[in-house]
Amino acid sequence: MTLTSDVLGTVDRLRRQVSDLHAELTRNELVAWTAGNVSARVPDQDLMIIKPSGVSYDDLTPENMVLTDLFGAALDGGGSPSSDTDAHAYVYRHMPAVNGVVHTHSTYATAWAARGEAIPCVLTMMADEFGGEIPVGPFALIGDDSIGRGIVDTLDGHRSTAVLMQNHGVFTIGKDARSAVKSAVLCEEVARTVHVGRQLGELLPIPQPDIDRLFDRYQNVYGQK
What are phi and psi of 185, to 5 degrees? Predict the structure, then answer.
């Protein structure tokens, strides 16, 4: 396909960003070997950038990030796209506000997924970032868009930017790829903390009105404007 020079410039920028963001997954110990991936939607185009399948994190470069359409067909890049491409593409097709998707098998969050159990909102950090519990999505096999359908069905209308896909792992979404990576990092952090808290005794839930106030403040007031 023929892309304008402006779109090509955007694609090059996103290749660099997506390549660099994979280092955050290893830095935060969210992935092992070649598992896990980051993708970014190309704005105003039916295109996305995603990690190549089975390539070591040490070998990732902007040049081998794969450009695909929103049905997962590779158009340019370092070879075959990630085996999770269909899931990412389905999310982009059905959630227009999402511009970044991340998948990990981070240890504690995936342990909750193995139990098929949502992470309850018992930390102010969870209320801030996720607006409530982190939900569980259905079991689905890789190979088509079944995982993507489960992600969308679970997160549609939910404030959480993370979902624990049963027996599989974590998928996170964001307004851009960096936001989705942040969600993945914080999902693992709260999964670990809530797990430890439960070992110590009964968890204390945060009342819903306080969750709502915390979420509104963090999303609309916190940080630099």
Answer: -65, -45
| Residue 109: other Cβ atoms inside 10 A | 26
CA distance 149 to 90: 7
Q: Which residues of the chain have pLDDT under 70?
A: 1, 77-78, 225
Measured between its terminal Cα atoms, the distance across the chain in Å is 39
> How many Å separate Cα 222 from the centre of its chain?
22
pTM for the model = 0.97
Reported as a single tens digit per residue, the pLDDT across 26-83 is 999 999 999 999 999 999 999 999 999 999 999 999 999 999 999 999 998 668 999 9
Active-site positions read: 128, 222
The answer to whether 92 and 41 have CB atoms below 8 angstroms apart is yes
Neighbour-count burial of 104, counting CB atoms closer than 10 A to its CB (0-12 exposed, 13-18 middle, 19+ buried): buried
Beta strand residue intervals within the chain, DSSP E: 37-42, 47-50, 66-69, 74-76, 100-104, 136-137, 162-165, 169-174
Residue 84: strand, helix, or coil: coil
Rounded to whole angstroms, the Cα distance separating 55 from 191 reads: 28
185 Cβ contact list (under 8 Å, min separation 6) = 24, 28, 30
* Strand, helix or coil for residue 195: helix
